[in-house]
Amino acid sequence: MTALAPGPGAPTDAIGVRRAFVRERARRSLVRRRLASRAALVVCAGALAASLAPLVGLVAYTVGRGWPVLDGAFLTHEPTPPGVPGGGIANAIVGSVVIVALGAAMAVPVGVAAAMFLLERRGRIATTLRFCADVLTGVPSIAIGIVAYDLLIAPGGLLSLGHYSGLSGSVALAVLMLPIVVRASEAAMAAVPAELREAGLALGVRRSRVMRSVVLRGALAGLVTGNLLAVARAVGETAPLLFTAIGSQLFSLDPTQPMAAMPLVIYNDGTQPFPAAQQIAWGTALVLLALVLVLSVTARAAAARLNRRAR
Amino acid sequence: MTTLLEEVPPPLAPVPGVARALRRRRRRPGGRLYAVLRIGGALVFGAVVVALVTTLVSGSSQAFGHFGPSLLWSGTYNVTKDQYPTGVFIVGTLVTTAVALVLAVAVGVATAAFLSELAPRAVAAPLSVAVDLIAAVPSIVVGLWGLLVLSPAFAHHVEPFLKRVPVLEWLLHGPALGPSMLLAGVVLAVMILPTVVALSRTAMAGVDVADREAARALGATRWQVVRTAVIPGARSGIEASVTLGMGRAMGETIAVAMVIGNTYTIPHSLLAPGATLGSAVINNFGEANPGLDRSAVVALVLVLVAITALVNVGGQLLLRARARATRT
After folding, report:
1. How much is the average pLDDT of A174-187?
2. I need a surface site. Which of A139, A244, A257, A286 has the fewest CB within 10 A?
3. Could you give the residue ranges of the DSSP H alpha helices within A157-204?
């Protein structure tokens, strides 16, 4: 309280002393609180650095290790037998594309149709389905893979082929994508103003036509974004493919046979102690990472573009 | 009045064709094909959910019938009797998830506060997009990085250093090997961080501006606004982000299997290798013989699904509670 000692020009009456005391307390409090605010800013900025560092480091490391491996031959050749240098991942790239494309071909129509159902109906069934979609989104992907194995591959399964196949991997990925597609599509369609739908219905237009010309057109941006993000998620999944598509060293376009996929190559080669195999894993990781990022960026760009046009 | 009524055109019903069309439309809004389409979509979706649950339940029934409910907390691993130490895996899942949550929540919520409240918009906007994009990095790539980069770094530098930190040394004893519960937790934290940041940031951005202005008007500094208005206002959203991140951490399998070391005993320290439900499934399903052995692995899957479903339902309820609170 030394600052409150009466100096020249200091108040002499009791009220003045009290007022100066309060003012000084407030000043000190403000200094303290500003300091705390500054410190919190630094701590939070540090947290941002701490959360970006591993993520950026991981991407940078993958690029650094994968880039030297990448060349024309890596992208266009089949793998060589162990010990033989060279070889590529053409079979895994094609396998990933075929498996995910087939999966999307199953998940997107079903998912969008189910979203239409949710949009048109408000009731216990719709609420239950929506709840199921939310829970299914969180089901570990390994569980989907195991169920796909039991139903599609194990002898005695419901729709069993009796052997591993790319198609069963597609089904597993479709189940993985389905809840994402349903929820994203429903959100996109629900964002179309109800007045537009009602205007169409008031003109006597059939509901199917309103859905096609008003809702689907209005929701196009959201639909494209949601479905692309679902595909981006599916491309990088390993666990559903481990016991379904199983992987293959051969180039194959036949989805009824075992198929290679990029995540499986990363898992199988990355867990080996040999530098040559780890090289292939890094190269594959870079290709996969690039593909996923391109899909995500395209999804966002498409959303921004179509939104602007809609306005 | 009567004249007005007389001027109203006669109802459509007397014209037979129109009446029939109206009746048909009321029965099937939008035509047969459209009805088949959307109801079919809903049915297929429902069937997928039912198939998922019934397959897991019927697949694991043999193991539950053989071992009884003690299967859930069994700690013994016996290959010849097809017995798995489910209890060990549950402990491993809980411990790695706890490590991941401690790291990801502390760092993630502070990051979200920085991006949403403290940073200038020109900085926050691109960084927010960066965090969202990084959320798309496949878990297998994170696992590869954890196995080939983090694991040696942990064995040689991080773990020996942490063992000398006064309080942490109680949790960390035993040799620094690299693959460990700690490393698995760190890898999981990296994976769920974008989820926590993105959802917390959305929750914070949704706090009413009036709340912030009120705090500001009372003389709060920027940090005090965050601490007294924004974080309490976004609390249920932050809790939901934590719960959903927790569900993701528990359900992640492939990256964990690559860095946890896969041993089937109760770990005595965070530096010891261990196993989670997911990693145990990945490592055993391929070799499991049809019959009781495979059924025991499917039981692990069922336990994992049940735990993550519980956590996720909790997260969804929190999100819904928040939506209801913001609406009123």
Report:
1. 93
2. A257
3. 166-190, 194-202
Answer yes or no: is B296 within a domain.
yes
Q: A116 and B41: CB-CB below 8 Å?
A: yes
Contact B133 A175 (CB under 8 A): no
Give the pair of three-digit tokens for residue B102.
Answer: 């401690």
Domain count along chain B: 1
Residue of B nearest to A244 (CA): B286
3-state secondary structure of A216: helix
What are the tens digits of pLDDT across the range A223-280?
999 999 999 999 999 999 999 998 888 888 888 899 999 999 999 999 999 998 999 9
Report pLDDT digits (tens) over B260-290.
988 888 888 888 899 999 999 999 898 888 8
Q: Please calculate the CA angle A198-A199-A203 and round it to the nearest 5 degrees.
A: 110
Structurally, how many domains does chain A consist of? 1
Range of the domain at A176: 91-310
d(CA B74, CA A27): 63
What CATH number is given to the structural domain containing A265? 1.10.3720.10
Angle CA(B265)–CA(B269)–CA(B270) in degrees, nearest 5? 105
Which among B45, B118, B301 has the least Cβ separation from residue A129? B45
> How far off is chain A from B151, nearest CA to CA, in Å?
12
Q: Looking at the domain assignment, is residue A7 inside a domain?
A: no
Mutate to test the interface with B, among A27, A29, A48 (most CBs of B within 10 A): A48
- In a domain, residue B203? The reply is yes
